[in-house]
Amino acid sequence: MLKKTRDKFIKLFGVPEVAVPYLDLFVTEQEMDIVEAMDGKAMTAEELAGKLGINTEKARELMENAYMKSVLNKDKQDEDLYIAANFYEKLNYSCKFDDHYPDLPKKLRDELDQWCYETYKKSPIFEKRLKGEADKSSNITYLPLDELDEYLSKSKRFRLVPCDCRNLKDACDRPRETCIRFDDNITNRTFGREITKEEAKEIIINANKKGLMLQVNADWRENGAAGVCNCCACCCYPVRAAIEFNSKGKFPIVEYLAIYDESTCTHCGRCVKRCYFGVFTFGSEEVEINRKIRKKIIYDPEKCWGCGLCSTTCPTKSIVMQKLNVEGE
Fold this sequence. Notes:
The chain has helices at residues 7-13, 29-38, 45-52, 56-68, 87-97, 106-121, 124-131, 148-153, 164-169, 197-209, 220-223, 237-245, 270-274, 309-313, and strands spanning 72-74, 82-84, 140-142, 158-161, 179-182, 193-195, 213-217, 227-231, 256-260, 280-289, 292-299, 319-323. Helix 1 (7-13) packs across helix 2 and helix 3 (45-52) crosses helix 4. It has a six-stranded antiparallel β-sheet with strand order 3-7-8-5-4-6, with helices on one face. It is elongated, with a radius of gyration of 23 Å. The chain is built from 14 helices and twelve strands. The longest helix is centred in the middle third of the chain and has 16 residues, at 106-121. By secondary structure, it is an alpha+beta fold.
């Protein structure tokens, strides 16, 4: 339990009401003291030391520890300057790296996920994406496995971290150690573990087998690969939001289309099970294949996001991914 009222910290750190009774599970009393002492201002260790009545070296140690736990951030222009983070950032850290997070009451985790998702949708960059105003470097696309080798070839370092979306939403049992950061996108707060290019490829291929879409930065051909997320539609924030706002094409950018050849299709239904967007569905009509009666597959290319999950599972290769001419390429 909190030792004293923390109204000032709650306001400064943007803590949602649902998290207030559990605040001590996310931040320490000392971390709250630091945020309150900084009072929304950027500070050096020397300045904080004066506020807390401690020596500068101790203040620097406390600030660095708080920085590594996403309680503080560093000024992008001056690393000696620290500024308070917020609960949204802290929650992203906690759901991935705090061992106790999965043990929190499910009702609380559901409420935190909903709060986090609503906060994500209000971010300036998401609003730009919805309006089609975001540049390509801040957009995403989905990459079929056929291009995986080329994508990975552009990088030398790979760091595997847990998926924040699935840890927050917790709506499926698909793999969670599936997010990979590359090269310059690996920082001292990326955490996770270093892996080889071969391991990265194996993780991505396995994620695809488990029904996860390969999400990448849309400008990777021009500016290099930043990393990958392997996404489902039930947990992934960008996918959930894009479906909710019907922003496909603006966000994410669609670069591929699933092309379906009915003449070779056995109507086995694997594509139906794999597709998140209703491109392939079962119709009411029945067909006879190898003396078996099956529901006929209905194909609606207008709904395709270009992820390629259908193509990689089709036993008769009746679905192939076709590259589209995307504006700006």
